């Protein structure tokens, strides 16, 4: 048993974080007090949050990747459930409407089925990123990719599109 210096309550040792440089090997503040202090500090200093993310971007990405791989089924189930909910459907419809408006407002009429076919032939039926053979893929795995993404100011014109495989298009996402 130990008394927390912050809240003054007596708690089990399991309620304290370990710390090697103290006499008893535990922090003087209980986990609850320590966590609430950290949370308050985190929300009061948003610039520290940004700095931390910049300094540790690789570490954060690695941790997220590991978490995703360990919890893939759980995360996919959550996504599926969310997309089926009213809120998820509403957001999907909003995103689709925004994309439709982006395409509509930036097109110049140069993209037709004939020009897309000629672009496919000009690329020799290969993905413009990884050069894999698109003719070996199902139609749903052949994507028309915007080289400069619509979200980054790209236009829906023939000079800004190219055929790619679905995996390259998804990896590229909205990056340049």
Can you tell me about this structure?
The chain has helices at 31-44, 46-55, 57-70, 72-84, 86-106, 113-122, 166-172, and strands at 2-3, 10-11, 16-18, 26-30, 142-146, 161-165. It is α+β, with helices and mostly antiparallel strands. The protein has 3 domains: 2-52, no CATH class; 71-106; 113-172, 3-Layer(aba) Sandwich (His-Me finger endonuclease fold), CATH 3.40.1800.10. The strands form 3 sheets. The protein has a two-stranded antiparallel ribbon. It is elongated and about 80 Å long.
What would a concise description of this structure say?
By secondary structure, this protein is an alpha+beta fold.
Descriptive terms for the model:
176 residues, alpha+beta, His-Me finger endonuclease fold, 3 domains, two-stranded antiparallel sheet
CATH class type of the largest domain? Alpha Beta
**What is the string of SSEs from the N terminus onward?**
EEEEHHHHHHEEH
Number of strands: 6
CATH topology type of the largest domain: His-Me finger endonuclease fold
